[in-house]
Amino acid sequence: MASLPTALPSPGTCSTRALLAALLTFIVCTPAWSADLSSILAGAAVQPPAEIGFREERNNPMFKEPMVLTGRLEYLDAGVLRKVVETPFEEDILVADNRVVVTRDGKTRKLSLNRSRALKTILGAIEAVLAGDQARLEAAFRCDVSGSADTWSLQMTPLAKAVAKRLSSIEVTGNEQAVTSIRISLPNDEWHQMQIGDDLSP
User: Fold this and answer.
1) Structural domains counted in the chain
2) Is residue 201 part of a domain?
3) pTM
4) Domain-located, residue 202
């Protein structure tokens, strides 16, 4: 299986909010230019199957300190995304066939994407980045790009009010070789910070 130079995050529960926090974006390496959205998307095509490791911190005002998760992110096929949490618990989150399937402790829960316009919009954005479809991405998010090939940042703010109630923004950062982190900011000072790579410290 090929190494995936990009990523997506995922929920610890099957609630819509957690699933929104869980799902993210796939972006790859960038050539030597001043960063702009079209250039980032031009390099975003990923041929499945592909995978990469992650280390994620989840902050919630109810937690005394952020929860740390580690595992693998997988792009299995067009429209098929998977997140495998290995520590501190085992969990499998699969996005396919217009639904999200979460398996943990031998129990499986399913959520139809038709039940959540916000979640479906987020997944549509992920597929748009994978396909390099700038028009589709900008139809769902305000996209602000800054930096250069060495250090670039893509800030995505949802346009739809239904999505904005669940998701404040997604910030993706990277360099010449790959995406290095994804930060998902939620309402009420809740956020998920994900480092992406195969050589991450526990």
Assistant:
1) 1
2) no
3) 0.75
4) no
Domain boundaries, position 111: 2-196
pLDDT in tens, the chain (202 residues): 544 544 444 444 445 555 555 454 333 333 444 568 887 766 655 677 888 889 999 999 888 899 999 999 888 887 888 999 999 999 999 999 999 999 999 999 999 988 887 777 777 776 776 666 788 889 889 999 988 877 878 889 999 888 899 888 988 787 766 677 888 888 999 999 989 888 876 6
Three-state secondary structure string covering the chain: CEECCCCCCCCCCCCHHHHHHHCCCCCCCCCCCECCHHHHHHCCCCCCCEEEEEEEEEECCCCCCCEEEEEEEEEEECCEEEEEEEECCCEEEEEECCEEEEEECCEEEEEEHHHCHHHHHHHHHHHHHHHCCHHHHHHHEEEEEEEECCCEEEEEEECCHHHHCCCCEEEEEECCCCEEEEEEEECCCEEEEEEECCCCCC
- Give the CATH number for residue 37: 2.50.20.10
